Amino acid sequence: MRNIAREIFLHVLAEASIAKGFARHVHCERGLLRVREDLYDLQAYSRVVVVSIGKAGHTMVEALAQQIGESAIEGIVASSVEPSSQVRGFRYFHGGHPTPNAESIHAAKAILKLLDAQSAASLVIFLMSGGGSSIVEKPIDDEISLDDLIATYRALVYSGAPIAEINAIRKHLSAVKGGRLARAGFPAQQVSLLVSDVPDDTPDALASGPTMPDSTSVEDCYRIAEKHGLMAQLPHSTRELFERRALEETPKSDDQAFYRSRWWTMLSNQTAVEQASAAAERAGFAVHVDNSCDDWDYERAAEYLLKRLRELRKESPRVCLISGGEVTVKVTNGGVGGRNQQFALACAARIAGENTTVLSAGTDGVDGNSPAAGAVADGSTVERSRARGLDVRTSLEKFDAYPFFSALGDAIETGPTGNNLRDLRILLAY
To answer: How far is CA 239 from CA 69, 72, 99, 101, 216, in A?
Structure first.
């Protein structure tokens, strides 16, 4: 069943690709661009510029150029993934992830300069994907240095807060997030194409929503910081803004920046869930989907999903439970791994001796600080690990899941996929 689980996941990566998503939703013929339900006459604009941000930055520009043609567009790509080639007419920046780097700052400045040069006769096409929060960044306050910015990001990532809460704070500390790129691009016509790695009901959390009205407020930020005990973890320059309650509010839905703006989702976690479900059905499993543990602590999610799987197993001889979204891990020790491998390891301890398999992996091909996308575990994992002198509990406590699964040959290593549709958990039993 470990092989079946891997095959389902690899099928998802192939079918939920950027190229296939754009082929379904974007089409251009004789200068008339269709983006889902919108039509844009490219010849009616004095200039068409593209700003592509995120792990899928290059892949999305390639897909757009495939539909429109390279000669029709120009702009900027900022990604944490180094492309093997570049699209003509684009400047490339290699931003940092999961924390910003100097290129992240350079990319933000270049994008703001490009947007500032646009007029009402311009069309700006924003391509947004996961990871954009750190890949393009410029602090709202010049007193915040790059080192302080990195320290702030680390404090947020390790806080255990859900991604939507993390991004709420990022938006209010940034000159480019929370709708501020849309404001910079006003009065140009704007359309954003989204490859989403955030919950479907909070699209403005994607890359911290640089082109969308912000649904969060400064009051939310103060509440989140208190809830997760962040004040003691933040560097002085950002902590001081919280202490003075000096955060600036982001653009909301009634801001003029959004008068000529549209947003369309090309791919999301739901796409991955649907493809996984179809593959599992073809493999002969009765499929159930349960995304209710999105943003739960990994141990709570493991308990819940395994209990649900055992209940479903009573009703069917071959059952597959698909769960999309992300679990959270509050890291207290510095091992090598990520939330997917930590989740799989927590499940391994709970399914020892059972005919059950659990796969958890990120569609971006990257899990935490490891070279793996995730891992697969089954009822034999604990026994096989003991034979190699490994201990599940020790690896869990040290947040060191990657060496554990790598030694067993059960780490899933795809390399960066150039896509990011959140995580996928596949649980099989028969």
So the answer is: 47, 45, 18, 20, 19
How much is the mean pLDDT over the chain?
Answer: 95
Nearest-angstrom CA–CA distance, 123 and 246: 34
CA 216 to CA 168: how far, in whole Å? 6
Judge whether 64 and 34 are in contact, CB under 8 Å: no
The model's pLDDT over 201-248, given as tens digits with 9 standing for 90+, comes to 888 888 999 999 999 999 999 999 999 999 999 999 999 999 999 999
What is the rounded average pLDDT of the residues 249-276?
96
CB neighbour list of residue 242: distance below 8 Å, 6 or more residues apart? 221, 222, 225, 231, 234
Identify the domain containing residue 278 by its residue range: 270-429
Residue whose C-alpha is closest to residue 195's, from 278, 93, 263, 135: 263
Strands in 423-429's sheet, in edge-to-edge order, are 286-289, 319-324, 423-429, 356-362, 374-378, 411-412
Q: Round to whole Å and give the CA distance between 148 and 137.
A: 13
Virtual torsion, Cα 95, 122, 62, 8, nearest 10 deg:
80
What 3-state DSSP class applies to 306?
A: helix
Number of domains in the chain: 2
User: Tell me, what amino acid is at 143?
Assistant: E
Give yes or no: residues 144 and 92 share one domain: yes
Burial per residue of 49-61, b for 16 or more beta-carbon CB atoms within 10 angstroms, e otherwise? bbbbbbbbbbbbb
Nearest to 99 by CA among 141, 153, 137, 57: 153
pTM above 0.90, yes or no: no
Predicted confidence (pLDDT) per residue in 157-174, tens digit: 888 888 789 989 999 999
**Domain final residue, candidates 235, 267, 299:** 267
Are residue 55 and residue 106 in the same domain, yes or no?
Answer: yes
Contact yes or no for 53/136 (Cβ under 8 A): yes
